[in-house]
Design brief:
This is MerR family transcriptional regulator. With 126 residues, the protein is mainly alpha-helical. It has 5 helices and 3 strands. A 3-stranded antiparallel sheet has the order 1-3-2. The longest helix has 37 residues.
Length: 126
């Protein structure tokens, strides 16, 4: 889809793989650009909006809070001057994701150990 193709909220939510409720919530929180409306007064979104919400959704899934996303959004809107702060924010988030991956790897080890013992016939493992 090109930048001139506009989507109504349902199409936009589907393309972004989020719910309409999430789109509305992000709008209320100021995470999406100001609303644009068509001649029927329906909210409309473009590819740039789709790219933005997709990235916000990934950051949210990576553990960023709404407050952190609002801060990030404000920094992006400030432009080039905020680049050092955005770099620091992404570094912090990266560390959190790496820690989360390490935790998941430990959890997987425990599950694999239990599975191995159960498959060996040891039913006493808790």
């Amino acid at each position: 889809m090109d930048n001139n193709q506009l989507m109504r909220i349902g199409e936009f939510a589907k393309a972004a793989n989020v719910t309409i409720r999430t789109v509305r919530y992000y709008l209320e929180c100021g995470l999406l650009p100001p609303e644009k409306r068509n001649e029927n007064n329906q909210r409309i979104f473009n590819d740039e909006d789709l790219h933005w919400i997709t990235n916000l959704h990934y950051l949210r899934e990576a553990g960023m809070s709404i407050v952190e996303l609002q801060h990030y959004t404000a920094l992006v809107r400030e432009g080039d001057n905020s680049l050092p702060q955005r770099i620091e924010l992404m570094r912090k988030q990266r560390k959190q994701v790496i820690a989360s991956i390490a935790d998941k790897q430990e959890q997987l080890k425990v599950i694999d150990h239990k599975l191995e013992r159960y498959l060996a016939g040891d039913s006493t493992v808790m």
